[in-house]
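U., I forgot to send this yesterday:
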Amino acid sequence: MNFNEIKLPGIDAQGLEKTYSLADFSGKTTVLYFYPKDNTSGCTQEACDFRDNYNRLSARAAVVGVSPDSIKSHRNFQEKQNLNFVLLSDPEHLLAEAFGVWKEKSMYGRKYMGIERSTFVLDGQGQIVKEWRKVKIPGHVTAVLDYLNERDFK
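Result:
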């Protein structure tokens, strides 16, 4: 299946729920970032970095966050952190698998499946033009902004 055709529930910046596909963002560059879990320290820092740079980012691209969390969890996360971009719920990992970010992970010797923190830039036609995998949070949003500014995406 083409990842642009996958439909997922999500909430917009005002907390309104609707079903999205990446095709909804066609015609605009999109920063699509995958993160493991709402309200955890790393994911909160990353989301807040996107939030704090939203005005600079939104001049160049739409910002969309994706995790396996429920809409209820996303709504709580969004309200608590005052997030100003779309969050998609991917509990069945459809989009995560399509982008190859649903991976086997290991913690304290225990293996489990989860999201590999990753960010993708999609052009207005929905094609991947840049990707960052195994993202380290400090400085990441700045790197995304630098990439968008260098390429003059609008």
